[in-house]
Amino acid sequence: MTVRHDAHGESRDLQVNPVFSREPVRVPRYEMPDGEMEPDTAYQVVHDELMLDGNARQNLATFLSSWAEPQAMRLMTECAEKNMINKDEYPQTAELEARCVHMLARLWHADDPRRAMGCSTTGSSEAAMLGGLALKRRWQHRRRAEGRATDRPNLVMGGNVQICWEKFADYFEVEPRCVPMEGDRYHLTPDKAVERCDENTIGVVSVLGSTFDGSYEPVEEIAAALDDLQARTGLDVPLHVDGASGAMIAPFLDPDLRWDFRLPRVASINTSGHKYGLVMPGVGWALWRDADALPDDLVFHVNYLGGDMPTFALNFSRPGAQVVAQYYNFLRLGFDGYRRVQQTCRDVATRLAREIARLGPFELITDGSDIPVFAFRVREGIDHFSVFDVSAGLRERGWLVPAYTFPADRTDLAALRIVVRNGFSHDLADLLLADLRRLLPRLDTQHRPHRADEAGGFAHGAETRNPRRPGRH
């Protein structure tokens, strides 16, 4: 660059190099650099690579919140360094966590919300595993008290459960008794649940908002069937509700639906704060009906952070920022605010489902009238393109709409799924519809499908035995 000088011969301009000419010229990708670099250079290198990621607002595969109010983001930034486990140093953050637990206990109709046990987690998957651990430990205590063996626990669930439940069974040595899909039955039903229960069953998992199609399982009917089982056989099998999504939808939109602690059979519930709880990723919640549902020997006490710290979690260090954001949302929106947000999501989902059904080539599996999620398939008789072709075509315009096959015994069923979250407006839905309409004439020129199920690419659950299982993350 040309350097200008003043009357005294001193430079008036700063000599600066363009960003991409700064040292180092070469940056290794898979090993740590030998020396330092300017923070702006490091930022630009990382920033440029992240441009290749998809637009989170167009990601209709994920259940996770992709938008938050600036005030919530500001609070999270202010609390970024707070470790949720350190309740002695951050007592007010711990207080906000306790308030959230009490609010959820009331929302889910606990008999005595003050006695309900609960905690925050890093997500609904960790919360689900804590629920499963409590079921297993309660069963072990009962069996030992009876002088009986505890080496063959099993857990009954539908084949549509999220992958975290299969991980729980594998990691904690519990036999998973999965009810496969059959015909038009895509989730667990009361008769199939009871068929698989025996003296070694630690519990039944019922899903309020299936990952595969967004439908509610009939929790009340499953609970009634387990009540009848106990009356007939003496088997007392508790029920855990995986409400990762639905536990933050049903209380606001389906208040008469009995799925929560109003049912005495329900021992515990998990949900995700970072899905329809409307918080950015990093928080889930696990609640138990009362202290009897959560064995005390699962709770550890530590004092090396100062004071007595009871903890029940798979992770020790956890961010407090998302817990604070959850409390902000509860405070900011209140019951009616959450109701309006969730109703808008359901309205967008049901309208979009209807419009897609009217296009002709597609048939709805669900319509978004439970959680704001729906699945659809290519109609019978259309054999020149597949759901995987549709997914790939929409991706060209930035839309991530997952295509996948259903689990056993309906792996023949391939579907597309759309998750409507806060921020996915009627306007964005119209843009998606327009792109889908533009895509269909091109697909109609094909003589055969170009992509099969191996092209799905949406295995968010990272399950090794069934790599095409869709995730709720």
UniProtKB/TrEMBL annotation:
Keywords: Decarboxylase, Lyase, Pyridoxal phosphate. SUPFAM superfamilies: PLP-dependent transferases (SSF53383). The keyword Translocase does not apply. It comes from the Bacteria. Its EC number is 4.1.1.15. Pfam families: Pyridoxal_deC. PANTHER family: GLUTAMATE DECARBOXYLASE (PTHR43321:SF3). Belongs to the group II decarboxylase family. This is Glutamate decarboxylase. It comes from Streptomyces chilikensis. The lineage of its organism: Bacteria, Bacillati, Actinomycetota, Actinomycetes, Kitasatosporales.
